[in-house]
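hey team, just a heads up i'm posting the complex here instead of the shared drive bc the drive is being weird again. everything in one block, sequence lines first with there labels, then the predicted structure for the whole assembly after. its three chains so it's a bit long, scroll down
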Amino acid sequence: MKLTPGKGSGSALHGCSWRVEHYNLDATLGSGQVFRWRWLGREWEGAIGGCPVRLRREGDRLLARWIGPAAFRRTLACYLRLQEDMEAILAEFPKDPPIQEAARACRGLRLLRQDPWECLASFLLSSNKQIPQIRRIIECLCRRLGRELPRFPGSNPLFSFPEPEAVAATSLETLRACGMGYRAPFLREAARAVSEGRIDWERLRRASIEEARARLQILPGVGPKIAECVLLYSLGFDQACPVDVWIRRAVAEAYFPGGNPSAKRIREFCARRFGPRAGFVQQCLYEYVRRRNAPVQLNA
DNA sequence: GACCAGGCAGAAC
DNA sequence: GTTCTGCATGGT
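-- predicted structure starts here --
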C-alpha cells in the first residue's frame, strides 16, 4: 500500500534549513553509528520517529524535508545535534599526534542523538558482523515488523523501526529469517525488557554513567562495547567510549607498539586518555582508521 | 576452506 | 583475575 501525504498537519510535507559549520553529513550518516540512512545520489533518506526524512548539504546550509508535523523540526535538530559547538569539543581532544591527525582528517564528523531502543537493537545485531550485513539485517527487520511510512514522490518503500512490543511478540524463527542468527534471542529479550519497563530510558538518562552502563549490561548479549554505543549514541553520555576491533587495533598500534594489550586494558586506557569527549574522539579515530585501511564508500 | 566481521558468554586456566 | 572457544551468517 502506497501512502501519500495528506492535508492534515500531522502528515504534511515540510522543509527547513539551518546554517551549519563543520558538519560533514556524509561522514556522520555513513560512519557506522547509525545503519538506516541511504544515499539516493543527491541526498540522504531515512526515518526518525516514524517520519520519513531527506537531508542534504548545500554550501553552508543543511537542508531537510520530512513528512510529518511542522514541530518535527525540533526533533530533527536534536537528532542531528545541530547546537553543538564543535570548536569547543575539538579543543577538549587529547593533544596526542594520533588523535589530532584523526581529528584533522575527520573534520565535520558529528555524533547523532538516536532513539535508544533503535540504537540498542541495532548494536545488538552488530556483534561479529560487517556494516553492510548489519544494514541488511535491520532493513529486513523493519520490512517485516515495522510499518510502511508515507513516501516522498518517486521514493522506494520506507519502513519504521519496529516497536519493542512488536519484536517482543515475534517468534525466533521470524527474527532468524532476517539473518541475525544467534542474536535473535538477545534481540527479543531486549525488546521484552524495554516493553515491560525493566529498561527505563528516562531513568537511565538521569542515572550516573556507571549505573546506566551496569543496567544495560544486565541484558543478555549486551557487553561493554554495545553498552557504550547505547550510552554514547542515544543517552547523552559523551564520555562513553565504544571500543571495537578497529579502535582496539588503532590504539594498540599507536600507544602499545610491539605489545598485545587485552581488550580490557585498551578500554581502560581509552577511558583515561580520551577525556570527557571520549565518544567524539573514538568516532574520529574509528572513521579515520576505517578510511585508511578500507576506503569507505560514503555514498553507497 | 580459512579467516574475518562496530562482541558476548561461559568454560578453562 | 585473564585467556580461550563457540556462536550464525555472509563476504573475501
